[in-house]
Amino acid sequence: MKKEQLEITLADAMPKDAKALLDFYKEVGNETDFLSFGEEGLGINQEQETRYLKSLQEVLNNRVLIARLGDDIIGVASIGAEQHAKVAHMGELGISILRRFWGLGLSRVMMEDMIDWATENDILRYLRLEVSKDNMRAIGLYEKFGFEEIGVTPKGIYHDNAFHDLVMMGLAVENQDQA
Known about the structure:
The protein has 179 residues and is α+β, with helices and mostly antiparallel strands. Helix content is 27%, strand content 34%. Strands 1-2-3-4-5-7-6 form a 7-stranded mixed beta sheet, sandwiched between helices. Helix 1 packs across helix 2. It is globular and about 40 Å long.
């Protein structure tokens, strides 16, 4: 059996991607219980998403990375950080991939790209994330990249008609020039 090759491209999100991103979030939110949202998506409108994506061009410690197959968004990774000086160095990492593209190594490639970007960033020094304790595949991925458990929020997420713990994980991302 011949393996199919997929040409997936990675690019930073632009304001023109707002509608496609909102559609992606609705689709991916419908496919898994491990996200903080469901089929309703992010609960914002296209104008709000466009404004957010425009704001990314003006801040240095936030990023949204899109994985595309042709014109379709199949994965998104993001780092969001506050602009207040006292906490601007801490970024919240998130990643989501459409179910039919799980297991292809896309999450690994996107994580590597985001961590490299964060390490080279002049502001960011630490990445953190929250993941359902039941999401062993994601936890395994994060551990491969050096994330360590820093805490647990009991009953932090509700899915499958039950509360589940959220694991908080963190990773220092200082480059040699910052140390």
